[in-house]
Amino acid sequence: MGKTKISIDYTKCGEKGKVDPRNCAKCLKACDPAIFIMHEAVDAELDPIDPQLWRVTPYWTSLCTRCMKCVEACPEHAITVKW
Amino acid sequence: MNAKNYSNELADRLNLQEYLTEQWRFFETVYIRKIMGISSKDLGYKMKMPIIGRLLRWSAENMIHSESKRRNPVRADGHFGQVVPLEDAKIILGSLAAEPIIENYCMCRWMQRGIKELSCINFGVLSGVIEKLPRFIPKDTKLRLDREEAIERLEEHNRKGYVASVWFQPVPYINAICSCETPECCGLRLRNDFGLMTVYKAEYVMKIDVDKCQVCLSCIPRCQFGARRYVPSLKRITVDPSKCFGCGVCRHVCRHDALSLVPREEVPGLKGQY
Predict the structure, then answer these.
(1) Which residues of B touch A (CB under 8 A)?
(2) Which of A70, B42, B119, B195 could form a Cys-Cys staple with A27, CB 3.0–4.6 A?
(3) What are the pLDDT digits (tens) for B54-69?
(4) A63 closest CB neighbour out of B29, B184, B193
(5) Class for domain B204-270, per CATH?
(6) What is residue B120's three-state secondary structure?
(7) 3-state secondary structure of B48
């Protein structure tokens, strides 16, 4: 199997979008092999004690089974999976 | 089990207050940060590359087991663990763990599932560090636990099916007993999916008493490591000893007392296989 490319549109979700992934987290829960990671936005972050800007990164992409559950689960249609 | 590894004196000597504060302030970004220009994103693909892959694996192993003085707190330097059965975890919490003992949110489950669940028991210097970081601690629940309460909570998690594991952070200082699950636990993920030695197997391995086992199959879905299966031709359950981590979680659902842990060192083929 070739490489899977998963991308998230951060203008829809994350520190610049209107959805805070901490409240949504639907993609994290939908994924059976749990390939997404939610973390504080490294470049934009100002407050390391109680960070408020978070984003989701498709991380363990080599374990993706291309089931498309994350694409279906995302209420903002921000996720695309390509291969 | 060496009491020295749990002591506050050791933490002071290694100046860990500062180190752990730095590490935990940025805990969720530990994967995202670039190390020598390479982040571990898409690690599976990167480790498959011919020469670079082997180099990456080697440097990751070195990082995980690092005892060097120049450890970097924003990486997981010297941070690895071992699975422990409930009995051993009780001994650790009952006598070895340094006060104060706290229970905070599992940060792996938070990172990978967006779920905040109280299941990590931390002790010693680390407790004081975590108490200051609002995202890891519950608002209205009691945070500090005495030894009995901690044991009670751990047993509760263990019965639910979570695997107890004890963690160096950083080696040789031990300051946490987690209740992990596959695949959310970052340590178990690196071990099971990528073969990195972030979590070692317990000192035990599971044995099934075939005469007592009624083949009710209730233990099979309990295994976090896929180590047991029902073999139709034999009409019995088998354990794959190379996969069994010896966590003992499956015992909680056995109604026929058929499951027991035997020391790993007593099984010739498993000697030294952690």
Answers:
(1) 25-26, 28-29, 31-33, 41-45, 48, 110-115, 132-135, 183-184, 189, 193
(2) A70
(3) 999 998 999 999 988 8
(4) B193
(5) alpha beta
(6) strand
(7) helix
